[in-house]
Amino acid sequence: MTEYLMINHGIGAPADWDTYFKMLRDHNHMMGGSALEPVVSVKESVFSEVSTPTITGYLLIQAESLERAKEIMALSPVHKAGGTVELFTLVRS
Questions:
Q1: What pTM did the predictor assign?
Q2: Distance CA 4, CA 31 (A)
């Protein structure tokens, strides 16, 4: 199994998350994750509440292949709601 990081930009329908998490757990894909509070960034020593596309949360998943990880990503409530989900393969040394 390969590990993947899914970065969410957007919020899916709350009712969809329980179903999605259950599917991930039932198929042994879920490894962890969290919603994120609004970002605080630093630029030239100035604190700001504004950033580039806001990351709203992340999931750590495992899947048999990149193709399967893409299928899992496509079922995400964020993706289904029109948000953006990025998928990264984790490289372990």
A1: 0.82
A2: 9
Three-class SS of 16-65: HHHHHHHHHHHCCCEEEEEECCCCCEEECCEEECCCCCCCCEEEEEEECC
Phi (first) and psi of residue 28, to 5 degrees = 60, 35
Q: Which CATH class is domain 2-89?
A: alpha beta
* Token pair recorded at residue 61: 């998943």
Sign of CA dihedral 30, 84, 74, 1: negative
| pLDDT digits 0-9 by tens, 67-80 | 999 999 999 999 99
Residue numbers of the chain with a pLDDT score lower than 70: 40-53
CB 5 within 8 A of CB 88: yes
Q: Give the start-to-end residue ranges of the domains of the chain.
A: 2-89
